[in-house]
Amino acid sequence: MASNIQPFTYCIWQDRQGSAMADLYISLFGGKKGATTYYTKAGIEEHGQAEGSEMAVSFEIGGLQLMALSAGPMFRPNPSISFSVICETEAEVDRLWTELVKDGKVMMPLDKYDWSARYGFLEDRFGVSWQLMLGKLSDVGQPITPTFLFVKDRFGQAEAAVRQYTDLFPQSTIVGMLKHQEGPYKDTVLHTQFKLNNQVFMAMDGPGEHQFGFTEGFSIMVNCPDQETIDYYWEKLGAGGDPNAQVCGWLKDRFGVSWQIVPTELEQMMLDPDKSKVERVTNAFMSMKKLDLAAIRKAYAGQ
User: Fold this and answer.
1) CB pairs under 8 A, 24+ apart, for 165-169?
2) Is the distance from CB of 18 to CB of 57 less than 8 angstroms?
3) 144-150 and 199-205 strand pairing
4) Domain PhnB-like, which positions (predicted)?
5) H helix or E strand, kind and range, residue 58
6) Is 100 in contact with 122 (CB distance < 8 Å)?
7) How does pLDDT run across 127-164, given as a tens digit for each residue?
8) pTM, whole model, 2 decimals?
9) Which end of the chain is more exposed for a tag (fewer CB within 10 A), N or C?
10) Environment class of 53 (CB within 10 Å of its CB; exposed 0-12, middle 13-18, buried 19+)
């Protein structure tokens, strides 16, 4: 049975550009910045970042909670997970395209397509991918939607992933699923819209040759109120995944998607003005795979 969680947080890996990314997206979509956390001496061997430098910036756009993690060049987001944006005027599509494509890369040019009279697919200067399209907001219910693209060895796994995720999370359902009806891609997913924890997602199987796949560059944080919930999602999402990718609350599921299973109270601990508390908490969770909330609380309290 699925356990209750707080809204997801979408974590985007960056190389010291977190604040710049948050500022750009807020300027384009509206929203607000949240808290910023900073690196301590703890874990320098692992993360290689200077003490006092920016670690993570939380922000909100379009009703989504995001986090920009400034963690060096090891990973980078890519088009395997993109944000689909519904715009109700061509002028809005063009405005967002003009700003997001600067110093970025065009994946599919802005043009008329079968599914939208104005659509374009791009990768922005931070490596984040966007699908901008003219449409009706009422058809989706939210302006910005995380979208999975299953490619290469993951091609054909979209339906299985969607069914597992909707079985796992509360307030979840498959809104609709359109499949290829014939040809070499028969029965693979052309497009599906679904809800997890009352949040809208989309997914597609992507045929053809692609130079990207799911990585830690884009991960989904599952914000858990207690250890029981942490245990539940760690076990369910981790089953059949990559055991070598399990570290500090991170895991990869059997489809290659990265998740962070974290206690909701960890952020407040990391924001404590007492640097010694933050240092102890960081040292504690850096040594863990699945996060042990009781041990983290003890470290925070200095016990």
Assistant:
1) 165/194, 165/196, 165/201, 166/194, 166/195, 166/196, 167/2, 168/2, 168/233, 168/236, 168/237, 169/2, 169/5, 169/196, 169/197
2) yes
3) parallel
4) 8-132, 144-262
5) strand 54-61
6) yes
7) 999 999 999 999 999 999 999 999 999 999 999 999 99
8) 0.95
9) N
10) exposed
For residue 126, what are its two tokens?
């931070």
Locate tokens 């990391």: which residue?
270
Instruction: Give, in order, the Cα–Cα distances in Å from 94 to each of 87, 105, 212.
Output: 10, 16, 27
CB 93 within 8 A of CB 133: yes
- SS3 (DSSP) at 180: coil
Q: Of the given ranges (65-69, 101-105, 191-195, 285-289), which has the lowest mean pLDDT?
A: 285-289
Contact 217, 127 (CB under 8 A): yes
Tokens of 219: 């991960």
Tokens representing 298 are 């003890």
- Determine the residue type at 181: Q
